[in-house]
Amino acid sequence: MGTVSTCGKASGWKNFLPKSQFRAGEPICVYAEALNVNRGGRIDVSFTVALKNSNNATLVTQTNRLSLRDTAPSSWYPWLALRLPADAPPGVYVAEVNAHNNLTNQSGVSSVNFTLAGNAESAIPSVGGMTLRIRFLFHLMCQLQHRTRRRGTEDEIRFNRHAR
Which is it for the CA torsion 31, 36, 39, 41, positive or negative? Predict the structure, then answer.
């Protein structure tokens, strides 16, 4: 196994943005490398990720198979949007990745810790003891957009009067 990391995003070999703290409901990206898995121009690796709590209980698991012809000696795989259960409490969790080379029957495992902080609502700002709801913000945006549109129409009318 090579690098295993939780991340904000991943887009290529060694091209990922490490991230170790997530909020409840936020997607968790995991990046993993399997080293020296190419056999005769073929790569065939099954990657399994498991998100576990502090008691080592598996909460989420997903397996994906990568099979391709390539000249690179190693391979990588990203899980871009894993999610812990909605009721997962804040704390330290583990992302464990097992890479199994289907051509040689060899396996490797590696893991990394990450933190789940607060719940999703704690990410929404609070003013005067009241939580600002997205619906309220949407309403304000609609009002502002309506005023801007109306103002633009008034400006067009004034411009057209002066252009005559």
Answer: positive
Cα radius of gyration (the chain): 24
- The Cβ of residue 78 has, within 10 Å, a number of other Cβ atoms equal to 19
Question: In this structure, are residues 110 and 55 in contact, taking their beta carbons and an 8 Å threshold?
Answer: no
Tell me the pairing of strands 130-131 and 42-52.
unpaired
pTM metric for this prediction: 0.71
Tens digits of per-residue pLDDT, 19-51? 999 998 899 999 999 999 999 999 999 999 999
How many angstroms separate the CA atoms of 112 and 119, rounded?
22
CA torsion sign for 131, 134, 140, 141 is: positive
Say if residues 58 and 50 touch (Cβ distance below 8 Å). yes
